[in-house]
Amino acid sequence: MTGRPVRAVLPPSPCAWLGAIAALAALVVVVLGVLYAGDGGPGGVDARVAAVVEGVGAPWRHVALAVDFLGEPVGAAALVVAAVTGCLLGRRPRAAVLVVAGAGLTVGTTTLLKSLVGRTIHDGSLSYPSGHTAFLTALALVAALLAAGRPGLGGTAGASLVLAAALVAGAAMGWAQIALGAHYPTDVLGGWCTALAVVPATAWLVDRAADRAAGAVRREHR
Questions:
Q1: What percentage of the chain carries pLDDT values higher than 70?
Q2: Of 92, 106, 100, 107, which is closest to residue 9 (Cα–Cα)?
Q3: Residues whose CB falls within 8 Å of the CB of residue 54, separated by 6 or more in sequence, listed in order
Q4: CA distances from 50 to 54, 129, 184, 193 (A)
Q5: Measuring CA to CA, which of 13, 66, 145, 147 is 20 to 30 A from 163?
Q6: pTM above 0.70?
Q7: Element (H, E) at 11
Q8: How buried is residue 67: exposed, middle or buried, by Cβ count under 10 Å (0-12/13-18/19+)?
Q9: Largest Cα–Cα distance of the chain, in whole Å?
Q10: Angle of helix 12-35 relative to helix 131-148, nearest 10 degrees?
Q11: What pLDDT, in 10s, does the model give residues 155-203?
């Protein structure tokens, strides 16, 4: 069988350090979850950060609402559909699978953690970790991983791109969540770290499953 070589969704250059970051991020998620389990108010750090960020007025509140919409069901679905469409048009079905699996598993993990941790905000809504922050960070990580795997992009440049994408997306959605009073700052940190832990692991699993499936097809055609 011939054809274009299939690019992995987890590039080899940032793979090693991404594993270490994913493990550290998972540890942060667990530690924060234990610290704030069953809590119904802000911690000391939360109060100090929220005092600076929360309660912004126009026009920044409108910006925060627009960013927040990207994590709502309609906005999130639109982003995922657009990303999957782009992957399919670019003939990268493996990447399309990562978009859906990466975002879906990240949001699913935050939903499970909210029930386990039981931290609440305002009217008793479960708040830890922030699903909005996790989702946008996950989608940015997927896009950055795919870009980092492009030929000609060096290891340092690829790693910098992945880290920058995670920071920008997490900071933007995190700011919006705190500014709107939807989450405590530590909820945002937990959501960001959840994406950092889940997406690299998902990318590794997608590559392994796709490679095995491709190997099975090649053996059948021998």
A1: 88
A2: 92
A3: 178, 179, 180, 181
A4: 5, 16, 7, 19
A5: 66
A6: yes
A7: none
A8: buried
A9: 66
A10: 170
A11: 677 778 888 999 999 999 999 999 999 999 999 999 999 999 999 999 9
